[in-house]
Design a protein that fits this description.
- The complex is a heterotrimer.
- Chain A is mostly helical.
- Chain A contains 13 helices and four strands.
- Chain A folds into two domains: 3-73, no CATH class; 74-321, Transmembrane di-heme cytochromes, Chain C (Fumarate Reductase Cytochrome B subunit).
- The N and C termini of chain A lie far apart (58 Å).
- The radius of gyration of chain B is 16 Å and the shape is globular.
- Chain B has helices spanning 18-27, 62-66, 92-96, 134-140, 152-155, 167-181, 190-194; strands spanning 4-8, 37-41, 49-53, 72-74, 80-82, 162-166.
- Chain C is built from 35 helices and 34 strands.
- Chain C has a seven-stranded mixed beta sheet with strand order 5-4-16-15-14-6-7, with helices on one face. Chain C has a six-stranded mixed barrel with strand order 26-30-27-29-28-34. In chain C, strands 10-9-8-12-13 form a five-stranded parallel beta sheet.
- Chain C is globular and about 75 Å long.
- The model of chain C is unreliable at 1-58 (pLDDT under 50).
- Classes of the chains: A mainly alpha, B alpha+beta, C alpha/beta.
- Chains B and C meet through helix 1, helix 4 and helix 6 of B and helix 2, helix 10 and helix 34 of C.
Chain lengths: 335, 200, 983
């Protein structure tokens, strides 16, 4: 990293914290007779840049953003995008994958301790699964296309060549733009459907104390969702909200905000996206590779009774008490 | 190799917009695309200065750095060109550009913002088209540079405020002016664009 | 999708097709074009383009293998005279190149000059003749149009007399067209022939000519490079004459010159000043007298200059003595220190030049204003030198030339006036019988009476017959290249248009004339071509003539002015007489021949030496002329020793090879090298009765004041003192008549066989008298004093008078306007209007001063420039500038809609507010180029289909008011009153 790059990084951080306005101070110089001397009073570029983070003035064409004459923050955004984001995203995403790999090697697949009972408990209704998979599919598409726009030129472009890469990128851009709506719809559905089961409860404390089910000797109690899932829910909701709001700002550039706002929106969008990807990677791991019997919940909507008792004992008891308990395996074969 | 730059001497600029229409005329730039513009700082107050701005053809051009499809690149002369065949209209270059240079034919994103358009230093396009051809003109505009001419905006500047040409030469012209007249509000944009300024 | 940025006119669909996409600016193309109705307009234009009409085409690069020619013409948008190089391929104008060779613009342009290609290619041009039939535009052929219009005009002439037809010409005419237009009016039999100079510099011409002989810029744009002090009072050249700023700013830098801008607005020019003085509009004379007070008080005046070359300074001293610093501050608001400092700088740091434009001229005191400026220049000895002088910036390409060539109600071409001698002179040049010419007019009195100024055409239409001093009121307007929206009191103009029997507008664009009223019939629009589509010369503000080559053939069915006027002359039956010495082939008139005819008659102003051949040689050799002196090296075979464009006066015949006069009245040069003296225009002496005290007794003496120069003469003059203008008689007295050739003597004899001795330098068609005078080092027009007292003007010495609608009614009792009177065939009741305004407390109801001015993007009435797609984009809305404090009081935000109300005719206008500190508190300012809206009503649908300009807006002159300069009929749009409120 060169010194100037470092300088930019510092400035960039500073500019994030700064509200920007454009009312350059006027140092009017007067002649001997008290009349203004416009030549001597003239604004100086360097002085303006020292006082403000950008230089803005009046322009008569209707394009308001054209009134910004110089915004050195563009270079800082470049630094964020090409240095911080590339390194940050690489570290976070690859780090997460590495962590999960280590977890798999160390813990292996968490089995259903009691073994499968053969009895099924309905866990997710069709609409619930639809919401999940709508969001999940959009997320994957958005994530991949998003990663393409960030890393494609490093990873894919050298492989497929510029023309093909542009074609791919153009398509991915359309995908990213249009799938965003599906993602938001899924997100809203998930929020509405699952919010009631995701409020924190006393049992969650116990769940933590019992090691969240990762310690084989202990039993971690949980309701329909355990604390880990609740955290995924709330973090996803928060990240989803941030990424949607920032995304729509980017989708309708300059309709709400100015250049500084657009840069911030892009920074938020990409930074949150990276963290979101990491979170979801963890989520996917637990739901598939990491735990036996978990995937069925979203796959078929039914889980094995033993799995339910092991991971969501309170919920399983409630369901049975309500008469929603498992039917005879003969009446409804599992698969 | 000469390094092409722009320099707007704000103490000469009178906001006459000759650079703007010269650009439109030479490159047949359509309504709504403003490759060059003049912004007035401190409008109406003693001390007001107007500055003509377009793509500055930056050193380490940030637009080129952030372009996700790498369609923007500097030529040997320091002119920053791009290929409209590769551009996907993502708009990143506008966020990175310190000078508001990139322009898009469309505003929303339903469909696309269209291919980015910007000042080419009247040097044609960065695509595959033959230099000086009608195909190149259709996409990018004029290729005066190929004929050994400078951008028309600077050539037609009413007060010789806007200078184009080799960076060292125009810096020298500016320096001499400031020495002669005793004032100068700075080589606007140079520090940001070229990591240097003209000290007098 | 690849988006073409090409917007070629040849792919007409492109522009329309682009509309389906959204623009990059939030309110850019989409909103604007939708509002402007461009989508519908452009598409329908394509749809209705009739077969056989040549489409305007453009856009580089040329087809493979096609040759590219370059042609040189002159930008039409102001008076600087920037050369334009056009690249033409296959008859299509494909691009512009900078003209580095031109000493005037050195490659530069402003936004208008850099966009002139679209003046020609614009899709918004009028394509073919149309007329209104029951409120609808109907196409007709040229032949049919000339026939119908001609019949109607002849019927009006029969019924009401020739004076009922008004010939309104244009400052965008070439010299040749302007001359032809004046000649046409003369042959028609009227002096109702005017053009834009009426509303821009008529007061300058009258005021300045009455001071030192000629009413034009004394020096040149280039010469400002020599100035040490540049005082701009009443001008904003950065926006109105941008390329002049190249000379001004370079001069300012090289000489570290003082640049002082005195203006009500902090303009783009003021931004580059070393001192900015904000002044109240309409107080020019008070400001100048305030300066002169300090100058006389401190002895800063140039005493030698005053005694040798100026008449009447003592009377001026008396008037100036009244303007003590406290009185100046009371009237102008300027503190003593500022006035004193500006005065001292101007008087002591010489050479000093005074630059002005319409900020001095457009007042009811316009003539007196510019006279006051002249007094300042004379008192400080700043006339007739490099770097000094009255640098009067004119507004259009050829407003100087059109003025010179007599598109003026008070004179025939080249300031000969309207007296019998003048008519006889031009009849000799035209080779027509004076008696026949007289028979064209209702009477000799009307033949010699000034016509109606363009500012009053609607009054002459609307007033009762007995109030207009001619046989009948105006019945027909024949307008060639003049907007209606640049003239004040538009509500009256709208009524005037409605009352006219016939309205003919011959212009590349329909102009606001065609849409303002609810007229249903009797309106014809004829498509004129632009000056780029015709040959001819133009006179820039510095008096240089430049020959423009036709770049492309007239597009669509448009036709050049010469040919149009020829057609009408044929229709009127006097074409053979009128074009007796002008070649016409297949209806195509030779511009060169017209200029040769001008040369043969233009002695008075030195339009005699600029033959088409010499002018063309100058255009070929532009690079040879010096940037500062504008002179070519003496040894050049083609243009050796000439000043660029042979600035008038260019004495004698072309063969004399006079180099032109770059600086008027410059005694440091010999006349043959472009030097000169003040013109002895006002006689040799003035008899004045004065009261004097002799031996304690008051007696009346009769003084014979010498009006000739004393001890001052131009370099190489054989008469080393003042002398009168040259006639054959004067030559004989000096014994110089022997130098005349027999041929010259024969011509002089023919001019006035009865009294050849009275034949003068200005009526001698041989040029012999001029030649001989110059050979002896003398100015043909004599060597006189400049007049500080112009005894023939309403105010012989300028007097401060408040504007008709003044924000300071308290000052009206001390400084009222002149009494009501009849001028130019109509009444001028300014005094009554001013009194009524004071009595009715108008300044309380309308507390803001309203002033107007120019934008860099547009010109004049603006139809042409608002139809230019590159210019129109830059200023898309009409607006009013209002000070932050005034806006705050009214709850007006920057960019919001407001209604502006005027004090007359219950006028109102709707526009955007631009809240800014450019204007001081109490001042509102508007650009004057907009039209197409009237009192909130968008008139776009009234334009002929597809010929509506891109940008429309309210006209400031909807709000402007009564007020006319008594000497010239100049209007007063620079100072009236208004009120503004949120819309």
């Amino acid at each position: 990293m060169t010194v100037s790059r470092y300088f930019h990084a510092v400035l960039f951080a500073a500019s994030l914290a700064l509200a920007i306005c454009s009312a350059p101070a006027l140092a009017q110089k007067l002649g001997p007779d008290g009349a203004p001397n416009p030549t001597a009073s003239s604004v100086q570029e360097q002085q303006l840049l020292n006082e403000l983070s950008r230089i803005e003035g009046r322009i008569d064409i209707p394009d308001r953003k054209a009134a910004v004459l110089i915004q050195p923050a563009g270079r800082m955004w470049d630094y964020f995008h090409e240095v911080l984001l590339h390194w940050g995203a690489a570290i976070v995403i690859l780090g997460t994958l590495l962590l999960l790999g280590v977890a798999y090697i160390a813990l292996g697949r968490l089995p259903i301790k009691e073994g499968r009972s053969g009895l099924k408990l309905a866990r997710f209704k069709a609409i619930e699964r639809f919401s999940h998979w709508l969001t999940a599919t959009s997320f994957v598409l958005l994530g991949l296309t998003g990663l393409n726009i960030t890393f494609g030129k490093i990873l894919l472009l050298p492989v497929v060549g510029p023309e093909a890469f542009t074609a791919v990128s153009e398509v991915s851009k359309y995908i990213h733009n249009f799938v965003s709506f599906a993602f938001v719809v899924g997100l809203v559905l998930i929020a509405v459907i699952f919010v009631k089961d995701n409020f924190f409860q006393r049992v969650d404390i116990e769940w933590v104390k019992q090691g969240g089910g990762f310690i084989a000797s202990k039993h971690a109690p949980a309701g329909r969702f355990n604390l880990g899932e609740k955290l995924v829910f709330w973090l996803s909701l928060g990240a989803g909200l941030a990424i949607s709001v920032s995304g729509f700002l980017l989708l309708f550039p300059f309709s709400v905000t100015d250049i500084f706002g657009m840069q911030i929106a892009q920074v938020v969008h990409s930074a949150v996206a990276v963290l979101f990807i990491a979170l979801i990677l963890g989520h996917i791991y637990i739901g598939t590779l990491g735990m036996e019997g978990a995937f069925e919940a979203m796959g078929t909507g039914e889980v094995d009774l033993n799995w339910a008792k092991e991971h969501h004992d309170r919920w399983a008891e409630e369901q049975i008490a309500k008469g929603n308990g498992p039917k005879s395996p003969l009446a409804t074969p599992a698969e | 190799m000469a390094r092409m730059k722009f320099l707007c001497d704000a103490d000469r600029c009178i906001d006459c917009n000759a650079c703007v229409t010269a650009c439109k005329n030479e490159n047949e730039v359509p309504w709504g695309i403003n490759r060059r513009r003049v912004v007035t700082i401190n409008d109406g107050k003693p001390g007001e200065r107007s500055v003509s701005m377009a793509c500055m053809h930056c050193t380490d051009a940030p637009c080129a750095a952030v372009c996700p499809v790498e369609c923007i690149y500097p030529t040997e002369d320091g002119v920053v060109l791009h290929s409209k065949d590769l551009c996907i209209g993502c708009g990143y270059c506008f966020y990175a550009c310190p000078f508001g240079a990139p322009q898009y034919p469309k505003v929303g994103n339903f469909g696309s913002r269209g291919k980015m358009d910007k000042c080419t230093y009247c040097a044609g396009g960065g695509g595959q088209e033959e230099a000086g051809s009608a195909a190149e003109f259709e996409k990018y505009g004029s290729n005066r540079f190929g004929e050994g001419k400078l951008p028309l905006c600077a050539e037609m500047c009413s007060t010789k405020s806007l200078l184009a040409g080799d960076g060292e030469i125009i810096a020298q012209i500016y320096k001499e002016r400031v020495l002669k007249r005793g004032y100068g509000s700075g080589a606007w944009g140079w520090l940001t664009a070229y990591h240097e300024t003209i000290s007098v | 999708m690849l988006v073409k940025k090409s917007d070629h006119a040849h792919s007409l669909g492109t522009f329309a097709a682009d509309l389906s996409s959204l623009p990059s600016g939030e309110m850019g193309r989409r909103t604007f074009l939708k509002r402007a109705g461009v989508a519908a307009g452009a598409l329908s234009a394509v749809g209705t383009l009739p077969l056989g009409v040549r489409r305007a085409e453009g856009g580089p690069p040329p087809a493979p293998g096609a040759t590219v020619e370059t042609r040189k013409n002159v930008c039409t948008h102001c008076s600087v005279g920037c050369s334009v190089i056009a690249k033409v391929s296959s008859g299509v104008w494909i691009g512009q190149e900078p003209v580095y060779d031109s000493p005037i613009n050195r490659g530069s342009h402003c936004c208008k000059g850099a966009a002139v290609r679209d003046d020609v290619l614009s899709q918004r041009r009028l394509r073919y003749p149309v007329k209104l039939v029951d409120g609808k535009w109907v196409r007709l052929s040229w032949d049919q149009a000339v026939e119908e219009i001609g019949d109607k005009l002849l019927a009006i002439r029969e019924k009401s007399g020739p004076d009922s037809v008004y010939w309104l010409g244009s400052a965008k005419f070439t010299n040749e067209a302007a001359y032809l237009n004046r000649k046409l009016a003369a042959f028609w039999g009227t002096n109702n022939s005017d053009h834009q100079a009426r509303i821009c510099h008529s007061t300058t011409v009258t005021g300045v000519a009455n001071t030192w002989g000629y009413g034009a810029m004394t020096n040149s744009y280039n010469d400002i490079r020599n100035s040490k002090t540049i005082l701009v009072m009443g001008g904003n050249p950065a926006e109105a004459h941008p390329v002049s700023l190249q000379h001004i700013l370079e001069g300012k830098e090289l000489n570290r010159a003082n640049m002082i801008v005195v203006d009500p607005r902090m303009t783009r020019t003021a931004a580059h000043a070393t001192e900015y003085v904000r002044v109240r509009p309409g107080t020019h004379i008070a400001t100048i007298y305030g300066m002169l007070w300090h100058i006389f008080q401190n002895g800063w005046e140039d005493k030698e200059f005053l005694s040798q070359r100026v008449y009447g300074v003592d009377d001026v001293r008396k008037e100036v003595a009244k303007w003590t610093p406290s009185e100046v501050e009371r009237v102008t608001g300027l503190p003593e220190a500022q006035v004193r400092h500006v005065a001292e700088t101007f008087a002591m740091q010489k050479p000093s030049t005074l630059i002005w434009a319409m900020g001095q001229t457009q007042f009811s005191t316009g003539t007196a204003n510019v006279r006051a400026s002249c007094l300042l220049l004379l008192a400080t000895g700043n006339v007739g030198y490099a770097g000094a002088g009255a640098n009067i910036f004119r507004g259009h390409t050829n407003v100087q030339g059109a003025t010179d060539l007599g598109l003026d109600v008070t004179t025939l071409p080249l300031y000969y006036g309207l007296a019998e001698e003048a008519w006889r002179h031009w009849c000799r040049v035209w080779e027509v019988d004076y008696e026949w010419m007289k028979s064209r007019f209702p009477s000799k009195t009307l033949m010699e009476a000034p016509g109606i100024p363009s500012t009053r055409w609607f009054d002459a239409t609307l007033l009762p017959k007995d109030q207009v001093s001619q046989p009948d009121t105006l019945q027909a307007m024949f307008v060639m290249g003049h907007g209606v929206n640049t003239i004040t009191r538009m509500p009256e103009a709208v009524r005037g248009i409605e009352k006219l029997e016939l309205l003919v507008v011959c212009d590349p664009y329909p102009t606001a004339w065609s849409v303002l009223s609810e007229r249903k019939d009797g309106t014809y629009l004829l498509p004129a071509c632009t000056s780029f589509e015709m040959d001819g010369s133009r006179t820039a503000s510095n008096r240089s003539l430049q020959w423009g080559e036709k770049i492309v053939n007239p597009v669509f069915e448009s036709q050049n002015d010469y040919d149009t006027m020829y057609r009408f002359a044929v229709k009127f039956g006097f074409a053979d007489l009128m074009f007796k010495n002008i070649k016409v082939e297949n209806g195509k008139v030779s511009a060169e021949d017209i200029l040769r005819e001008i040369n043969r008659g233009g002695w008075s102003t030195g339009y005699c030496g600029q033959s088409p051949e010499r002018l063309k040689a100058h255009m070929r050799n532009q690079a040879k002329f010096d940037l500062v002196t504008m002179r070519a090296p003496i040894d050049d075979p083609e243009v050796g020793g000439d000043y660029y464009g042979l600035p008038w006066p260019c004495w004698g015949t072309p063969e004399l090879k006079h180099p032109g006069t770059p600086i008027l009245y410059n005694t440091n040069l010999a006349v043959k090298d472009g030097g000169g003296t003040f013109r002895a225009r006002f006689g040799v002496e003035r008899v004045v009765k004065r009261k004097a005290t002799v031996n304690g007794q008051e007696v009346e003496t009769e003084d014979h004041d010498n009006l000739l120069a004393e001890g001052s003469y131009s370099a190489g003059s054989e008469i080393q003192d003042g002398y009168p203008e040259f006639t054959l008689g004067v030559l004989k007295k000096l014994g110089w008549d022997k130098d005349l050739t027999p041929d010259e003597l024969a011509v002089i004899q023919r001019v006035n066989p009865a009294k050849p001795d009275t034949v003068s330098w200005s009526t001698d068609l041989s040029g012999g008298i001029q030649r001989v005078a110059i050979a002896h080092g003398c100015s043909p027009y004599g060597n006189g004093k400049a007049r500080m007292i112009a005894w023939n003007l309403p105010d012989p010495i300028p007097v401060h008078r408040e504007p008709i609608y003044t924000p300071r009614p308290d000052l009206v009792s001390s400084y009222p306007t002149l009494p009501d009177a009849r001028q130019f065939r109509v009444p001028n009741v300014g005094f009554s209007v001013q009194k009524a305004a004071v009595d009715n407390g108008i300044s309380k109801q309308f507390p803001l001063i309203l002033s107007s001015g120019r934008l860099v993007e547009y010109e004049g009435g603006g139809e042409e420039t608002r139809s230019n797609k590159w210019l129109a984009e830059l200023k898309q809305e009409m607006y009013v500038e209002i000070n932050v404090a005034d806006a705050g009081e009214r709850g007006i935000k920057d960019g919001s809609w407001v209604w502006v109300f005027g004090p007359e005719s219950q006028s109102k206008a709707r526009m955007k507010a631009l809240v800014t500190e450019r204007v001081g508190k109490g001042l509102a300012w508007m650009p004057y180029h907009f039209a197409g809206w009237y009192e909130g009503d968008d008139r776009r649908s009234h334009y002929p289909k597809g010929a509506d300009p891109f940008v429309l807006g309210e006209s400031v002159n909807t709000l402007t008011t009564y007020g006319y300069d008594p000497a010239t009929g100049m209007q007063e749009p620079k100072a009236t009153l208004c009120q503004i409120q949120v819309a």
